[in-house]
Amino acid sequence: MKITTLEKVGVVVRDLDRAMHQHATVLDTTVWTLNDHPADRLSAMVSYGRRSAGTYRTAYGRAQGVVPFELVQPTGGETPFNEFLLSRGEGIGYLTVRAEGADAAAIAAHFAALGIPAAHSHVVDGDVRRTFWDTRRALGGYLLEVLPTAYVPLGETRTLDGAALRGGRPALPVQGVRHVGVVVDDTMAALEHYHRILGIDRFAVKTWQTEPGRLDNPFYRDISPVQHGYFTAQGAAGDVGFEIIQCTYGPSHYNREFTDQRGPGIHHLFPYLTTDAGDWAATVESMTALGAPLCMGSDLRGGASEYGYFDTFDRLGGFLIEGVHRRFPAEDRYMAPDWEVDFSTLVEKD
């Protein structure tokens, strides 16, 4: 199964209307396609192999035309959305991706061969089946929905005035999802699952810790510098990049405000990179004024760049937004990964 495209970032929220306004404010997601899904629009609902019933509302919008979000507000019953909200709170509960050239039967066969069942499925309007594969243990706290063709939104359109909501301040610039940041218990153990499920063959592995050339001057909230570290691997499936993160020591947003509260899951999206110091400073200033200041970050690679997480957790629905400022080219010794994992070199067992 070849994954080509990120079709939706599925964000479970308590209040759909508030969430749309917050996304319009912070990310300038202004055009939304809304759908109410009462019981009479849903059929053949199955959760964990049992007949179930539930309802929900959705809003689909593309942040600045490039990052596809589906906001979901559960409105009752047993759905994967209500389960996520009641057990974990707001957050990114699923990703919807496209598998080019695979029909529904081939997608189902792929997951069956891996021993991964559907956590939930249902049919909308007697026509469109939605299936959420239970990849939570394997991939790190989220479900996967796989489509054979591009998603086409249908429903009521609502347009919001993001500029007015921001009071004239600029939104966070969005260029696309450079990666989805997933915090897991064991990075190396997760890589095989990402390979088998999503078809990712190569990962760049790197440890980040408080020392010159890695995390040069890290901060977390009011702790500056903070002594902490984390172990990461990066790979891509089609246009979807993944950063898989394991905390190694010290306090950080990854553990103190995320996994300590809810376990593994999608912690952040990385949609913004700039080489312009003025642009970076203006974005930080605007986001701070909008109530989303930097809550964690550091200079990196001998000062060649800096990264930071904007604290959008309570505004966008349980996740952070990462930004990076590249100041100048880093030395090769700072750019190189610690090693690479290449699944094309697997040794056959006797």
Q: What does the oligomeric state look like here? A: single chain
Class derived from helix and strand content: alpha+beta
Q: Considering DSSP H and I runs of 4 or more, what fraction of the residues is helical? A: 10-25%
**Which fold does the CATH topology of the largest domain refer to?**
2,3-Dihydroxybiphenyl 1,2-Dioxygenase, domain 1
Number of strands: 21
Report the biggest beta sheet as strand number plus sense, adding barrel if it closes: 10 strands, mixed
Give the amount of beta strand, in percent.
Answer: 35-45%
- Going by CATH, the architecture of the largest domain would be Roll
Mean pLDDT figure = 96
State the end-to-end distance.
27 Å
Overall shape: it is globular
CATH C-level name of the largest domain: Alpha Beta
Integer count of domains: 2
The largest beta-sheet arranges its strands as: 14-18-19-20-17-12-16-15-13-21
Superfamily at the CATH H level of the largest domain? Answer: 2,3-Dihydroxybiphenyl 1,2-Dioxygenase, domain 1
Q: Total helix count?
A: 10
Unreliable sequence segments? none
Radius of gyration: 20 Å
Can you tell me about this structure?
With 350 residues, this protein is an alpha+beta fold. The protein has 2 domains: 3-164, 2,3-Dihydroxybiphenyl 1,2-Dioxygenase, domain 1 (Roll), CATH 3.10.180.10; 172-341, Roll (2,3-Dihydroxybiphenyl 1,2-Dioxygenase, domain 1), CATH 3.10.180. Helix content is 24%, strand content 41%. The chain has 10 helices and 21 strands. Strands 14-18-19-20-17-12-16-15-13-21 form a 10-stranded mixed sheet. The chain has a 7-stranded mixed sheet with strand order 10-7-1-6-5-2-11. A 4-stranded antiparallel sheet has the order 4-3-8-9, with no helix packed on it. A hairpin with a 3-residue loop joins strand 5 and strand 6. The longest helix is centred in the C-terminal third of the chain and has 13 residues, at 277-289. It is globular and about 60 Å long. The chain starts with a strand and ends in an 8-residue tail after the last strand. The mean pLDDT is 96.
